[in-house]
């Protein structure tokens, strides 16, 4: 069965920058190890990257979350050092979820999709549910110890929401 590991938004701004948190920093070693182990098992690794323009504060999202982050080509937009390798695919996404990512997963015929990253309650859940919609028979899993939410409570709530939607929580 073809497998893919999707690493959601493990970017400088979500770990160390304007929206960084101790929870995101605390999962970084586990995320790094999971990526290394997955590559060693022969699986494909794909990244998403939250991507905004200089006009972020004037966007709908910027009005609800008025913190400039992940501006394209900025240091905060970069994937955390040591995670990405040449040959990995990246999906830049201007919104929480990426239909292009879900379409890619369907077209490639992945039977097992594992997801890790940030924020559990925003981008991880959005992408997990999109992938479930595009690939209803695929096994979609989220590794809880390799995810961090905007708060610990939001993380737990998102895990429960995904569990209710037949996403396996590891």
Automatic annotation (TrEMBL):
UniProt keyword annotations, A-Z: Hydrolase
CDD domains assigned to the protein according to its UniProt record, in alphabetical order: cysteine_hydrolases
Signal peptide range in chain numbering: none
GO MF term set: hydrolase activity
Pfam families: Isochorismatase (PF00857)
Domain Isochorismatase-like per the UniProt entry, residue ranges: 4-165
Family under the similarity heading: Belongs to the isochorismatase family.
Name by which UniProt lists this protein: Cysteine hydrolase
Species per Swiss-Prot/TrEMBL record: Candidatus Scatosoma pullistercoris
Lineage of source species: Bacteria, Bacillati, Bacillota, Clostridia, Candidatus Scatosoma
